[in-house]
Design brief:
423 residues, alpha/beta, UDP-n-acetylglucosamine1-carboxyvinyl-transferase, Chain, 2 domains, four-stranded mixed beta sheet
């Protein structure tokens, strides 16, 4: 099926939206956040800070006004702080809650309670944080602890873990703090904190934060989310004459999917590049393309972990074999995405061979009619929608409601580029 395509601007980046809410709440003054993503995940972050005494107003559909209370102005909440389905909310706020002068309890949905939190709990506890949990899963309880750290090394290539530690380091009063990663991960936290006046420096795979930090309020515009754009990009590659996605975030650590698409022979280009609020932003132009299979290494995985479901679908439509290794992190996302995509492909009559840290898949495959199990994972669900509109209209998915976790305007944006789904 072919669509005309067109030009579209999409929802604000989810990672930056979370951080804008968190740091706006901790700033000393009023911040205005434009084009912020208002979704299931970001609503969880907003609600928690409102519970902690921060005045946050929704001025219109995608604009927030946040009256920051400073690093030490949060108030104790008597109930549980609920991250719902948001792993970003949970892991970033562990660093914050571990440094407060009051006790708190953080919980989440049944889905989030299955996701490991040891990766952030362990380094915090090793440095002196008082955190209690059962087997290092949610719910988690925090008690006041006046701990500081000079150097800490993460045990997973995770921007969430690094960011949680950076947030904790903002409370160090005397010494600089250095966080070291094995593999450098996305740096939105560092960029936004630097924009808000925090004295920090990133050198390779480590970041150092000076003591006595304070955050200045900002008037910030959140660029379009490249992880959400990946689904429209896939439609463009498979079925559009020409598609332009405007004002998309082009952070070096967030364009791994675009790099791989280029490696596959995808006709993708970038125009109108500019720096806005310390992030690179531009327009991405996509033309219908004949894709080829590729090999993905561990070093490439970290920069496209959220895009792997839609990448797997594209690999099934590419000529030749695609091989992925070093992607064990996919096992502990909103679902086990390796197992979920294996079931996705097999249930639709395709072929895929998986291993612990990746898979092999050959194309071009014609996927048959069938129902996809989303496992309440928004990215699996959107991948199924793309398969439906581009490959076989009889491919269905068991749950589209979870899409609102990250991309509530997904179906509206499909319509803007001439793509109709369902009725």
């Amino acid at each position: 099926m072919n669509f005309s395509g067109g030009s579209v601007s999409i929802v604000g980046d989810k990672s930056i939206s979370h951080r804008a809410v968190i740091f706006g709440a901790l700033a000393e003054g009023v911040s205005k956040i434009n084009n912020v993503l208002i979704s299931g995940d970001t609503k969880a972050t907003i609600q928690i800070f409102q519970n902690l005494g921060v005045n946050i107003k929704l001025l219109d559909q995608n604009t927030l006004e946040i009256s920051g209370v400073g690093l030490n102005g949060l108030k104790q909440f008597d109930g549980e702080l609920d991250a719902i389905n948001s792993g970003t909310t949970a892991r970033l706020l562990m660093g914050l809650l571990s440094k407060q002068n009051f006790s708190s309890k953080l919980t989440g949905s049944n889905q989030l309670k299955k996701r490991p939190m040891d990766r952030i709990i362990d380094p915090l506890v090793e440095q002196g944080a008082k955190i209690v949990s059962k087997d290092k899963y949610l719910p988690v309880e925090f008690q006041p602890s006046n701990f500081n750290f000079d150097v800490v090394k993460t045990n997973k290539p995770s921007a969430q873990v690094k960011s949680g530690l950076i947030i904790a380091s903002l409370y160090n009063k005397e010494n600089s703090s250095t966080i070291i990663e094995d593999i450098s991960t996305r740096d939105h936290t560092e960029r936004l904190l630097g924009y808000m006046g925090v004295d920090l420096i990133r050198m390779g795979n480590q970041v150092t934060i000076s003591p006595n930090a304070s955050l200045s309020p900002v008037n910030l515009t959140v660029p379009g989310d490249p992880s959400s754009a990946a689904f429209l990009i896939a439609v463009g590659l498979l079925s559009c004459e020409k598609l332009i996605i405007n004002n998309l975030l082009l952070n070096e650590r967030r364009i791994g999917f675009l790099k791989i698409i280029k490696k596959m022979g995808g006709n993708v280009s970038i125009d109108n590049i500019q720096k806005i609020n310390n992030e690179n932003v531009g327009d991405v132009i996509i033309l219908k393309s004949n894709l080829n299979g590729v090999s993905i290494s561990k070093d490439e995985v970290a920069d496209m972990v959220d895009e792997f479901p839609i990448f797997t679908l594209l690999a099934s439509q590419a000529s030749g074999e695609t091989t992925v290794v070093g992607a064990e992190e996919l096992r502990v996302k909103e679902s086990d995405r390796i197992a979920a995509m294996e079931k996705f492909i097999l249930n639709l009559g395709g072929e895929i061979r998986t291993q612990k840290d990746g898979f092999k898949i050959s194309g071009k495959q014609f996927l048959q009619a069938g129902t996809v199990e989303s496992n309440d994972d928004h990215r699996i669900a959107m991948t199924a929608i793309v398969a439906n509109v581009c490959i076989n209209s009889k491919i269905e998915v068991d749950n589209i409601d979870c899409i609102s976790d990250s991309y509530p305007s997904f179906f509206e944006d499909l319509l803007k580029i001439g793509v109709h789904y369902g009725n």
